[in-house]
Amino acid sequence: MSANFIDYVKIYCRSGKGGAGCMHLHRAKYLPKGGPDGGDGGKGGSVILKGNRNLWTLLHLKYQKHIMATDGGKGGQSRSFGKDGEDKIIEVPCGTVVYDGETGEFICEVKEHNEQVVLLKGGRGGLGNWHFRTSTNQAPRYAQPGEPAQERTVIMQLKVLADVGLVGFPNAGKSTLLSVVSAAKPEIADYPFTTLTPQLGIVSYRDGRSFCMADIPGIIEGASEGKGLGLRFLRHIERNAVLLFMVPATSEDIIKEYKILLSELEKYNPELLTKARILAISKIDVPLIDEEGNEKPKANCQQLTAELGIPVIPISSLAGQGIDELKDALWTELNKEQNQVIEISHAPIDVTVIERDEPEAREEEEEGTIYLNEVEEEWDLDKYKGIGWDE
Ligand SMILES: Nc1nc2c(ncn2[C@@H]2O[C@H](COP(=O)(O)OP(=O)(O)OP(=O)(O)O)[C@@H](O)[C@H]2O)c(=O)[nH]1
Ligand SMILES: [Mg+2]
Fold it and tell me: Which of 2, 7, 39, 212 fits 79 for a cystine, CB–CB 3.0-4.6 Å?
């Protein structure tokens, strides 16, 4: 499963160029000066992105290094139009964000099912010489070339669209919670960084209602400088309505741990801090014992709620404690009007960091690939000599 979760691809895309307009002068047996009749070139195909809610990863694009639409056909004599190039439609999961591969600048995003976004527009076809006839120039010997193709190397990133995103240090019990509240079967183990790729689960709530929860790898202090697994996974919680922070009850300093998580999130994208937050204190079934073997008092959640200004809920996924209260709190937050907006501005990505971070990006470009970057064809009158015009 984890090897198949691809949320980053780099692809060279090219639209089709427009077909050249035709320069042609009509001639028939008893019609020596039939006039211009060169037809228009066809338009080049566009590269279009289309949202598909049945896709959950960019895996199907992983081995596709080039995506190219076809060129428009040339116009012909008797005012016949050139054939239009075929569009290339790339199906992507909803929540795909596209950046420029060279500069990292944000280009577009696809959010909804069946939503179509034109990534690269095909070139317009050139006009045939028929269009250029005037009373003073009845036999124009020129036609328009087609518009050139557009090309761009793009980086596509998937930003999972979930309602609730889990944020916590490794081993906080995030995956365990997801496995308890949903049918998802994430890997759970007693060592840090068990979860390497984001996992999604549908949490069923009362009366057949449900919401989607995303479990992402753990974050540690300094993650923004690349420690641990870094922060690139945070893009999967960028559009969540609610962030569920998780700190284990066994933590030395719950508030400190929560603040570290907050500051790492802020370093990634300050807009993340505008989202609704809930703090779950996990593993409350574990007895707290100090060095002398005496039981320590449990964290006071009311006090924490007052201090942090967000709901703080004690839970134990193993003992099944507090899970319903947590779901209630999440549902309440999800349904608040101010939390419904999941718009977020996508900051440009640092292409150099991404190259280092993302293993797939390191793959060598295939050799011998021909980049279709031809120079637009010059209009060559000689080529058309003797094909049926005379004056
Ligand atoms: N006692 C107790 N142990 C728990 C509870 N929840 C999780 N654990 C244990 O904590 C360990 C870590 O749990 P995970 O769910 O893998 O933690 P995680 O936050 O997903 O960790 P990473 O994926 O590494 O970031 C496992 O050994 C779990 O069995 C709980 O409620 N009570
Ligand atoms: Mg995990």
Answer: 39
Q: How much is the CA Rg of the chain, to the nearest whole Å?
A: 30
Tens digit of each residue's pLDDT (9 = 90 or more) over 268-285: 888 889 899 999 999 999
Percent of the chain whose predicted confidence (pLDDT) is above 70:
87
* Cα gap 168→155, rounded to integer Å: 28
Across 22-36, 86-100, 137-151, least confident range: 22-36
Report how far residue 56's alpha carbon sits from residue 373's, in angstroms, rounded to the nearest whole number: 33
Q: Where are the alpha helices (DSSP H) in the chain?
A: 174-181, 254-268, 301-308, 323-334, 351-357
CATH of 164-341, one of 3.30.365.10, 3.40.190.150, 3.40.50.2300, 3.40.50.300: 3.40.50.300
**Dihedrals phi, psi of 211, to nearest 5 degrees:** -145, 165
Which among 188, 250, 286, 298 is the best mutation to test ligand 1's pocket, defined by most ligand atoms within 8 Å of the CB?
A: 188
Q: Where are the domains of the chain?
A: 1-160+347-385, 164-341
Sole residue written with tokens 């202090």? 221
Closest CA to 87 of 69, 73, 71, 65: 69
pLDDT digits (tens, 9 = 90+) for 171-227: 999 999 999 998 888 889 888 888 888 888 888 888 778 888 999 889 888 888 878
Strand 164-168 with 106-110, pairing: unpaired
Distance 266 CA to ligand 1 centre (A): 25
Secondary structure (DSSP) of 247-286: EETT-S-HHHHHHHHHHHHHHH-GGGGGSEEEEEEE-TTS
Q: What are phi and psi of 373, to 5 degrees?
A: -125, 40
**Ligand 1 center–CA 178 separation, angstroms:** 10
CATH architecture of 1-160+347-385: Distorted Sandwich (2.70)
